[in-house]
Write a structure and sequence with these properties.
Elements lengths: L4 E2 L2 H5 L2 E3 L11 H12 L2 E6 L5 E3 L1 H5 L5 H4 L4 H7 L2 H15 L6 E8 L5 E13 L6 E9 L1 H16 L3 E7 L5 E6 L3 H5 L3 H6 L2 H4 L7 H14 L3 E9 L2 E13 L5 E9 L1 H14 L10 H18 L2 E9 L2 H8 L1 H17 L6 E4 L4 E7 L3 H16 L3 E2 L5 E2 L3 E9 L7 H17 L5 E3 L2 E2 L1
Parallel strand pairs: 18-19
Antiparallel strand pairs: 1-2, 2-6, 3-4, 3-7, 5-6, 6-7, 8-9, 8-12, 10-11, 11-12, 13-15, 13-18, 14-15, 16-17, 19-20
Helix pairs in contact: 14-15
The structure holds guanosine-5'-triphosphate.
């Protein structure tokens, strides 16, 4: 079969052909096929002779607007015009003029037309220009009308809904070959990402490229996990856009299509205020107010993690427990504020002489703990000793101008998966015993694993 299709009864009689219509592998006649297709789509058809102004509508065309064709007779181009919504008529005329003038490839518009019941129906109008095969070269514009009111209403409802929702709503698609894209995003992408919805539909990386590089792998991993488990995707991540950085939260439900595609329908909201508050609270809950070091709660958490990690990967770590000597006497002699100043200075000394990877916490009044990952006992002892010398050589001045020195005692223990697998409680207790041994044997000294230094 060629690429020219003879049209239905009336059209064939007029000897018309449609350019570029595909009719390959057809066993049925084109007339039967076309009729079946049109009936299947529920489309009304119209044919308009541009030379004689003759107009032919099918029965369905009239039915779409609640009439029988007989009730609309005699039909003309004006029949259509008179039923068009006045505000949409110009748009339809423009689309037609553009098509006939060669400005657009197809004639297509969605306009409102008046139904017999007084309601406006959204009609999708499409048309194609045909020329007769004979010498007359008569030009016919032929096309269809489809009632798309329901789709238009849903679209409108979704649009209105998306405007009043506090976030972006979207449909995200992951193809079996790994390609991904948005098949729908609401206009709020502009408020959230500074990108227009069309840009996000064109290329999803217009959004993904704005995600904070530290959070992007987590976002990808969580999507992959949700695709695998088909569990709800929930992810909090930072976005860098509009010259600032803020927290967003995405929530969506995945569905797996028979063709293997995964489709998520969901919403993204801005959680920047809550998230920062949450982070601030979290920070406060693990920080010692006086010194700015971590507190006991955080040290216990880090110890649990270190033991778990050590058991899993066979790593080692050391712990130094430090306690200021005769601190009560410092308070009593020079006053509580001076005692506070000593603690703050001591915290600074520890912080400045330990590594970034170490965790330093004030775990009690004048007690501090240093957790040193991947550090053996001897090395930890050396650090403790350097701190002992540093504090000992520090000169403190009271509010009254009296100068005094301060010392501490320390216990040092090591945790190693090969030698012992002490639980956190036992480890702390071993460290305390070493510390008490240091206190008992005269203070201003370090005891490692219960042995005097
Ligand atoms: N200035 C100040 N003092 C505190 C703070 N927290 C606890 N203290 C005091 O620290 C002192 C600790 O005294 P003790 O437990 O008897 O120990 P010590 O006097 O250091 O004696 P040894 O540890 O045996 O050398 C107490 O007087 C507490 O009131 C604080 O935040 N600031």
């Amino acid at each position: 079969m060629g690429k020219e299709l003879q049209l239905g009864e009336q059209s064939t009689q007029r000897g018309l052909t449609v350019k570029d219509s595909v009719t390959e592998h057809m066993e049925l006649t084109p007339e039967i096929l076309l009729k079946a297709i049109l009936e299947g789509t529920g489309a009304g058809t119209w044919e308009w002779n541009l030379d004689t102004q003759e107009v032919i509508y099918n029965e369905r065309w009239a039915q779409l607007l609640g009439y029988s064709l007989a009730e609309l007779e005699p039909v003309s181009f004006q029949t259509w015009e008179s039923l068009c919504h006045p505000s949409d008529l110009q748009e339809a005329r423009n689309a037609l003029a553009s098509y006939l003038g060669g400005g657009s490839q197809k004639f297509e518009c969605v306009i409102r037309m008046l139904h017999r019941d007084g309601d406006w129906r959204w009609i999708h109008t499409r048309g194609t220009l045909l020329t007769s095969q004979d010498d007359s070269g008569t030009r016919w514009l032929m096309g269809t009308h489809l009632d798309v009111t329901r789709e238009k209403m849903s679209e409108h409802q979704l649009e209105q809904l998306s405007k009043s929702l506090p976030g972006i709503i979207y449909t995200f698609v992951l193809e079996p070959d790994g390609r991904y894209y948005f098949s729908y995003v609401s206009e709020k992408t502009w408020d959230f990402y500074g990108a227009r919805a069309e840009e996000c539909l064109d290329d999803p990386d217009n959004i993904f490229s704005l995600i904070h590089p530290e959070d992007l792998p987590r976002v990808h991993e969580s999507i992959a996990r949700s695709a695998e488990t088909l569990e709800e995707w929930v992810c909090e991540y930072r976005v860098r856009a509009r010259g600032t950085c803020y927290w967003l939260k995405g929530v969506s439900r995945p569905e797996k299509e028979p063709d293997g595609r995964i489709i998520w329908h969901g919403m993204t909201i801005n959680i920047d205020i809550q998230k920062n508050l949450e982070l601030e609270l979290e920070q406060l809950s693990i920080t010692d107010e006086l010194t700015g070091l971590y507190n006991r709660r955080y040290m216990l958490r880090k110890l649990q993690e270190s033991v778990a990690e050590g058991e899993r990967y066979g790593a080692t770590f050391s712990l130094i427990s430090l306690d200021v000597d005769f601190f009560k006497a410092i308070n009593d002699s020079y006053g509580h504020p001076t005692g506070d100043a000593v603690l703050i200075r001591f915290a600074d000394i520890i912080a400045s002489r330990t590594r970034k990877s170490d965790t330093v916490a004030r775990t009690g009044g004048e007690e501090f703990i240093i957790l040193m990952p991947k550090t053996g006992l001897a090395e930890a002892e050396q650090v403790a000793e350097s701190l002992r010398l540093a504090l000992q050589s520090e000169r403190f001045v009271s509010d009254e101008g009296e100068t005094f020195t301060v010392t501490f005692s320390a216990g040092v223990v090591n945790w190693s998966a090969e030698e012992q697998t002490l639980a956190v409680r036992d480890l702390l207790s071993a460290c305390d015993q070493a510390l008490y041994a240091a206190k008992r044997s005269g203070r201003n000294r370090i005891v490692a694993n219960g042995n005097d230094d």
